[in-house]
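Students often ask why inverse folding is considered easier than folding. One informal answer: many sequences map to the same fold, so there is more than one right answer. In these notes we will look at a single instance of the problem. The structure comes first.
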C-alpha cells in the first residue's frame, strides 16, 4: 500500500507491506510540497502520482523503484490530477484542465502514453470529470462527472 502523510512541512509517500504491517520505505522529494493520488503500476515496480512542486503547478510523476528515479510525465501550467495506470502498463489516465474550457473550471480526462509521451483526449466538455479507473481488460474507463447546468452550477457527481 502506498499512502501520503505530512512530514516536516511537506508530503512524503510511505510504502506499507500489508502482510507484515511494516513501512518498507518512505519517499521524500525535496522540491515537492504536496503529493496525492498514488497509483501502482501493474507490475508494482513504479508509482504514478500527482504532485505540486516548488513551481506551484500540479503535474504527474512516476517513481521507479528499480533505479530509485523520479520522472515528470507532465510538466506544464495545467492542473493534472488523479492518475490511474492502465492494466497493460502502457497508459496513465488522468484528470486535467488542459482544454480551452479549463479556464472556466472544466476538467476532462486524458491518457498519457508512456511509450510515446503523447497525451490524448478521453473526454471534452464543460463538465468536471475526475477519478478515472480502468476496467480490468483496459477497454473502458469509469469516472465521476459533474455536468454544468444552464445556470452555471454543477450537478451532483455521477459515475460514467
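Output (designed amino acids):
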Amino acid at each position: 500500500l502506498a499512502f501520503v502523510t505530512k512530514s516536516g512541512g511537506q508530503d512524503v509517500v510511505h510504502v506499507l507491506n500489508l502482510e507484515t504491517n511494516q513501512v518498507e520505505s518512505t519517499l521524500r522529494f525535496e522540491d515537492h510540497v504536496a503529493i496525492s493520488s498514488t497509483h501502482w503500476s501493474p507490475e508494482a515496480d513504479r508509482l504514478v502520482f500527482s504532485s505540486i512542486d516548488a513551481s506551484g503547478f500540479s503535474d504527474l510523476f512516476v517513481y521507479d523503484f528499480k533505479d530509485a528515479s523520479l520522472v515528470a510525465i507532465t510538466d506544464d501550467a495545467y492542473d493534472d490530477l488523479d492518475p490511474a495506470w492502465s492494466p497493460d502498463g502502457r497508459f496513465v489516465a488522468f484528470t486535467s484542465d488542459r482544454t480551452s474550457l479549463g479556464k472556466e473550471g472544466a476538467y476532462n480526462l486524458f491518457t498519457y502514453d508512456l511509450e510515446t509521451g503523447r497525451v490524448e483526449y478521453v473526454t471534452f466538455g464543460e463538465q468536471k470529470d475526475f477519478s478515472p479507473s480502468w476496467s480490468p481488460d483496459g477497454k473502458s474507463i469509469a469516472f465521476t462527472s459533474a455536468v454544468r447546468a444552464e445556470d452555471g452550477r454543477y450537478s451532483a457527481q455521477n459515475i460514467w
